[in-house]
Each structure stands twice: as structure tokens, then as C-alpha cells.
What does this fold into?
Amino acid sequence: MVTTAPTRRSSRCALRDSSRPAPRRTRSPLPSTTSSSDPDPARLIAAAVPALVARLLVSRPDRVHREALALLERPLLAHALSLTRGNQLRAARLLGLNRNTLRKRCRELGLARPRSAARAPGAPEAVSI
It folds into this structure.
């Protein structure tokens, strides 16, 4: 009688049939959007786009894209900075940006630098060693 080495298929079946429990499925970190009381943010934004474009075409016809992005990006960056209490590195990581890109966009959008503004009046300046 000739015995053969187990094939990949039989190895997989042996693993599947073992007494180990099946891997658990994890839930999505995003909340479910099936509830009618909690509308989908993407749908809300998509519904607002036509009115936004119409308004921007009247005021700035040559800068619609840039102005529309600024209208969304300014509160997005401000919220990320508030969530991280002004920590630009953590806010950049949260948004998936490079810290220098975040700083540049904040400067271009006129967002104040929260770290330096948060220092109490009369507090000594940081000393570099």
C-alpha cells in the first residue's frame, strides 16, 4: 500500500475541521447608516453640491473647485485640530496627511495655530536647548 503526502486541499480541510473556533467577524468602525433618523453624510453633501456650485459660479466662476474644497476643508481641519487639542502631528495622522501639508493648508485657509494661541498671556517662551 502506497501512502501519499497530504495535499493542500486535505490540509485546509483538516484545519477547518479542527476544534478551533471560527474567526470572529469584526464590526465596522463606522456607524450604520441604515437608520432613517441618522442620514448618510455622503448623501447630505451630494444633495448640497448643486446649490453650492450655483452660488460659487455667481461669485467666483473661475475658482469653483478651489472654493468648494476650502468650504469643506476648513471645518474638517479645524475639527481634527480640536479633537487633538491642537496637536498638529496627531491631527495630520488622523486625516492621513503629512504634518507639513496640514500646516500649509491651515495657513492657506486662515486657520490660527492653536498651540501658540493656547499659551497663557505672560507665560515664558519655550527655550530651545
Remarks:
- The domain at 64-114 is CATH 1.10.10.60 (Arc Repressor Mutant, subunit A).
- The mean pLDDT is 76.
- The CA atoms of residues 43 and 110 lie 28 Å apart.
- The radius of gyration is 26 Å.
